[in-house]
Design brief:
Blueprint (H helix, E strand, L loop, with lengths): L1 H16 L11 H4 L36 E3 L9 E13 L6 E3 L11 H10 L3 E4 L8 E2 L14 E3 L5 E3 L3 E2 L10 H11 L2 E6 L2 H5 L5 H16 L3 E6 L28 H21 L5 E5 L11 H4 L1 H9 L5 E6 L10 H26 L6 E6 L12 H16 L4 E4 L30 H12 L3 E8 L3 E6 L5 E6 L6 E8 L6 E9 L10 E3 L20 E5 L4 E5 L4 E6 L2
Parallel strand pairs: 1-21, 2-18, 3-4, 3-14, 4-9, 5-8, 9-10, 10-11, 11-12, 12-13, 13-14
Antiparallel strand pairs: 2-15, 6-7, 15-16, 16-17, 17-23, 18-22, 19-20, 19-21, 19-23
Helix pairs in contact: 6-7, 7-9, 10-11, 11-12
């Protein structure tokens, strides 16, 4: 009874919302996909937000290619959600760096893995970050594996002061299990992507030379020269505040420039200036432009976090305002290693993405800093215990993060990571690295498909949209004229959605793909189905034919209506 009343109320609200609006011959308001808003409007691109900045240099207009399609019946039940797309209002142009990904140094030589290269080419992440998380702070790009320079100590200290073998990584390697720097560059070329490089900041802390900061900055500048303009985006260190990071705590007996035992934000900022000066000089010498990022915390530290964390941003921000080109944040969204429910996980994708941007802007304003581009260079979830990380729910989470990042004017988002380790389903990897029982190596996890269809069916401009009902909706337009909507149903009940265009005329047809999870493993299925096409492997999705699956299609006359299953996603494009 409550459901019927809710549907009735939505219908009344939809009618009231459209009272007095004109319909043109293209369809007729809510029932035909017509303008519903006084005729066709040519929208104006808004100014690029300061939080996006130069990342918008990557923008290109997108042309929609009509897929092969199969006529499908429209839902016959009354809509439970109404989405209105205002084609006359552009929220932002969409820089194609929202679906970037992290590679790492332990995922083979990559160029030897034909299926991986094929999937990466299809995915089009555009940017692939390297050499991978905390490894960056023990990585020597110009040395063989575990063969550091003479001023790198054989042992490093952990947060508690316990010494252990350093375990350095190097870019000059021929081992099959770890990628060389040159093969990283080759992989980028083969897959049509570009790089983001995180240089070794830890060496500035644990180096035993007379001037370890200058030595580490020189190493980074030499990498810029060797790179020779192939990479535009550079980061100074990885999570340098972290107790897990090389350089967090150093043996002061071996240090020759008076650095404190424990890192702090002000010291990191002081060192960032030296790195930036050296790296920018190197780029200038070879006639290239690079952008350098500084790491800050994405949220107010909790009371239990370290003294380093508590003062990190206040130490960093005042010193780097004129130095850094962009700021870097990381987020693993869910409470650390909790066995969270699907609803809890999905809610963090909207809530935390908005909260991080608010915290970022407020922090820079308080510090008196200029608002500059922000890059979320690592994100995922840490929930575990029910195989959440390899589930289709994590795919929906990644989709919402990307869409919300665009909506909130992030400059760049980069998911962690392409390959990791199965660990009973506690695996951030987008692909199976070969250790998941009974599953082929490089089999894409469900998240791959949510990201693949998003980059294909999200346009190049995000449009204003309004929703009545229970779905999330993100609207966009293509440079070629089509309009699209990504519809996300976070609930456990089916939604029937009606879509109306304002300030534009719909063409004769609309096309859509529906992604749903399987029935295995409770609410955390490790499978995803695309228009009913499922995996041939025990987990994952339709890996053999995802590029050729036919879209569903219907005529716009009589209304643009679609069913979004429980915890389902629909990628829908309306013909011009």
């Amino acid at each position: 009874m409550k459901k019927m009343k809710f549907v009735f109320m939505l219908a009344i609200l939809a009618v009231l919302a459209n009272c007095g609006k004109k319909s043109d011959t293209g369809g007729g308001g809510n029932t035909g996909g017509g303008t519903g808003g006084g005729g066709v409007v040519t929208p104006t691109d808004p100014a690029t937000a300061n939080t996006i900045g130069f990342f918008m240099n990557e923008w290109n207009g997108k042309t929609f290619s009509v897929p092969s399609s199969v006529d499908a019946a429209k839902p016959t039940v009354a809509p439970t959600s109404y989405v209105t797309i205002d084609a006359g209002t552009i929220l932002t142009k969409i820089a194609p760096v929202y679906n970037a990904h992290n590679a790492n140094s332990w995922m083979t030589q990559m160029v030897t893995e034909a299926s991986l290269i094929s999937h990466l080419t299809n995915l089009k992440p555009n940017v692939i970050r390297f050499p991978g998380g905390s490894i960056s702070d023990v990585y020597f790009w110009n040395k063989p594996f575990n063969t550091p320079p003479s001023d790198a100590p054989a042992q490093l200290l952990d947060a508690n002061g316990v010494a252990s073998t350093a375990g350095y990584w190097g870019g000059q390697t021929t081992d099959s299990w770890t990628i060389s720097l040159n093969n990283y560059y080759t992989m980028l070329q083969q897959t049509g992507n570009q790089g983001m490089i995180t240089v070794n900041y830890g060496y500035a802390r644990y180096g035993t030379g007379t001037n370890p900061v200058a030595q580490a900055a020189h190493l980074a500048a030499d990498w810029v020269r060797y790179d020779n303009g192939r990479t535009k985006y550079w980061e100074i260190g990885n999570e340098c505040n972290g107790t897990w990071e090389a350089g967090y705590r150093i043996n002061t007996a071996n240090n020759k420039d008076g650095q404190p035992e424990i890192i702090n934000g002000a010291l990191y900022a002081q060192h960032v200036k030296q790195f930036a000066d050296s790296m920018k000089k190197a780029a200038q010498d070879i006639g290239k432009t690079i952008y350098i990022g500084t790491y800050i915390l994405e949220a107010q530290p909790a009371a239990w976090q370290t003294a380093t964390d508590q003062t990190w941003n206040s130490g960093v921000l005042p010193k780097v305002n004129s130095i850094t080109d962009f700021y870097i944040v990381h987020s693993y969204y869910t409470p650390f290693q909790t066995n969270a429910t699907a609803a809890e996980i999905l809610n963090t994708a909207t809530d935390n993405t908005t909260a991080m941007m608010t915290y970022y802007k407020n922090g820079l304003t308080t510090a008196g800093n200029t608002i500059k581009p922000i890059a979320l260079t690592e994100y995922n979830i840490t929930s575990q215990g029910s195989k959440q990380q390899v589930s289709f729910v994590n795919g929906i989470h990644a989709l919402i993060v990307m869409a919300e990042a665009i909506k909130n004017n992030y400059g760049f988002t980069c998911r962690w990571d392409l390959s990791n380790g199965y660990n009973s389903g506690n695996d951030h990897g987008l692909f199976n690295s070969g250790d998941e029982p009974g599953v082929a190596k490089w089999n894409p996890r469900p998240a791959f498909y949510y990201m693949y269809y998003f980059q294909k069916y999200m346009g190049d401009r995000m449009l204003k949209s309004t929703t009545l009902g229970g779905v999330l909706a993100y609207a966009s337009s293509f440079n070629s004229g089509e309009k699209s909507a990504v519809l996300i149903n976070k609930s456990t009940a089916t939604e029937t959605v009606n879509i109306t265009l304002q300030n534009a005329t719909a063409g004769s047809k609309y096309y859509w793909y529906t992604l749903t999870g399987g029935t295995d493993n409770g609410e955390f299925s490790s499978k995803v189905y695309v228009n009913g096409n499922g995996p041939s492997e025990p987990t994952g999705g339709p890996s053999s034919n995802y590029t050729t699956i036919a879209a569903s299609s219907a005529v716009t006359a009589g209304g643009i209506n679609v069913t979004v299953p429980a915890r389902g996603v629909v990628y829908l494009v309306i013909d011009k």
